[in-house]
Hints:
- This protein has 7 helices and 21 strands.
- The chain is an alpha/beta fold.
- The protein folds into 2 domains: 4-116 and 244-311, FAD/NAD(P)-binding domain, CATH 3.50.50; 119-240, FAD/NAD(P)-binding domain (3-Layer(bba) Sandwich), CATH 3.50.50.
- Helix content is 24%, strand content 31%.
- The model has no long low-confidence stretch (mean pLDDT 95).
- Strands 1, 2, 5, 6, 7, 8 and 21 form a 7-stranded mixed beta sheet that branches. A 5-stranded parallel beta sheet has the order 10-17-11-12-13.
- Flavin-adenine dinucleotide (FAD) binds at residues 12-18, 35-40, 42-44, 46-47, 50, 52, 83-84, 112-115, 117, 135-136, 139, 247, 250, 281-283, 289-292, 294.
- Flavin-adenine dinucleotide is lined by residues 12-18, 35-40, 42-44, 46-47, 50, 52, 83-84, 112-115, 117, 135-136, 139, 247, 250, 281-283, 289-292, 294.
Amino acid sequence: xAETRHTKVLIIGSGPAGYTAGVxxxxxxxxxxxxxGIEPGGQLTTTTEVENWPGxxxxxxxxxxxxxxxxxxxxxxxxxxxxxxxxxTGVRPFVxxxxxxxxxxxxxxxxxxGARAKWLGLPSEDAFKGFGVSACAxxxxxxxxxxxxxxxxxxxxxxxxxxxLTNFASKVTLIHRRDTLRAEKILQDRLFKNPxxxxxxxxxxxxxxxxxxxxxxxxxxxxxxxxxxxxxIPCKGVFVAIGHAPAxxxxxxxxxxxxxxxxxxxxxxxxxxxxxxxxxxxxxxHKYRQAVTSAGMGCMAALDAERFLAExxx
Length: 314
Ligand SMILES: Cc1cc2nc3c(=O)[nH]c(=O)nc-3n(C[C@H](O)[C@H](O)[C@H](O)COP(=O)(O)OP(=O)(O)OC[C@H]3O[C@@H](n4cnc5c(N)ncnc54)[C@H](O)[C@@H]3O)c2cc1C
């Protein structure tokens, strides 16, 4: 029979933002329920080494997320393997429906549903993800010190990633389908002035080439969009920089959004445009998109929810 569960704080999402909110909300005696979603542990479960989580020189992404889950659980957070399919923000308590059939009612909700990098969808891109193919220069640029890299894309993300990668790479080739960039002019100026960056216009990625033992990228095969001519470019890293999509499906029609779908929060807080609904992590953040910034926002969201509940005790 379909069940209804009530909680003071419902946390939706099990990445660094969600689990950190779980730790803080539990320690505030709010007895939170955290619903994990389709990807328990979030984006970091799709990577290998993480070298910028404070306190760990190197940790495997999936291991770190198991530790965060165990931490939240040990503090008293109830963690449920379910997916929220709808959220009614028009009534309080808020009503969330789970794919399992369970209904969750909550006095406050913390949205921590994250974001997804957009990918091209090539089988070879998928095969080398985490082994030379990346969508995050801040996360993985350091692994390519002194190596040649290609960046795919033509918008702000691609130009910013290309510029950032010149801190590590010996050469960066920016590959774009057109002969003009969509990126802001100031970024373009910096790109064109950078001696380490070459642009390859009118080309698209056909295939990532690599080897299996040890697994890694050795180059890319790119196709001219008009002539179909194929060129091979040797490189060790391929950064796909065609944008990110925040996982805003539950709230895109009811909350204020910015920068193409990120949930807007009041500056210096996690309050959204609906009182009692808080948002944390990559879902709100088009700029930093890091585990540690997401965890920080998860902490803020739990503290904001605690204050909100104290002020709205019925
Ligand atoms: C390949 C890769 C490597 C990375 N490497 C690093 C790195 O080295 N260092 C670093 O700091 N950052 C790294 N990042 C970025 C980092 O993973 C993210 O910034 C961080 O995970 C964002 O955390 P989050 O909690 O906001 O959301 P996410 O990690 O995106 O988690 C979102 C969660 O929401 C859940 N969810 C979504 N929709 C629903 C729903 N309807 N119901 C219930 N749950 C839902 C999902 O199941 C998931 O658990 C990397 C990202 C990728 C993709």
